[in-house]
Amino acid sequence: MIVPAKFREGLGGKFIITKGLDGCLYVYPIDEWKKLEDKLKELPLTNKDARAFVRFFFSGASEVEIDKQGRALIPQNLIEYANIEKEIVSIGVSNRIEIWSKEKWIEYNEQNIDYDEIAEKMSQLGI
Q1: Per-residue confidence of the chain (127 residues) as pLDDT tens digits?
Q2: From the CB of residue 100, how many other CB atoms can be counted at a distance below 10 Å?
């Protein structure tokens, strides 16, 4: 994939790409990945859900480099996970980038998501 110029500076020369939620891929700059890794390491090993989540996240993680033409090679296992066939959509989401297959991104955006209801739930979390 060609890494959009607006993302290259924030990613640096190397970054981490892994399985994300909702069928997309998550891309983290190395420093942000280390922060997430530290938080995930603090989860209790005795909690089954915590173990499953950590496995999910770390099992797909790969360090990737951007070449001189601004391209990065997505590992095959992640291409298959995200059902990427041809076109992708890259979006910036706070401290990460999400990579979606174009078809899956369109499908996601066509869902009837009630953002007002989500906003209510977020306010319960103090946001």
Answers
A1: 878 777 777 788 899 999 999 999 999 999 999 999 999 989 998 999 999 999 998 998 999 998 888 889 999 999 999 999 989 999 988 889 999 999 999 998 888 778 788 888 777 777 6
A2: 24
8-state DSSP, 41 = H
The answer to whether the beta carbons of residues 62 and 18 sit under 8 Å apart is yes
CA 27/CA 65 separation, integer angstroms = 12
**Reduced to 3 states, what is the DSSP secondary structure of residue 11?**
helix
Of residues 55, 16, 22, 21, the one with CA closest to residue 35: 16
Total residue length of the chain: 127
pTM: 0.87
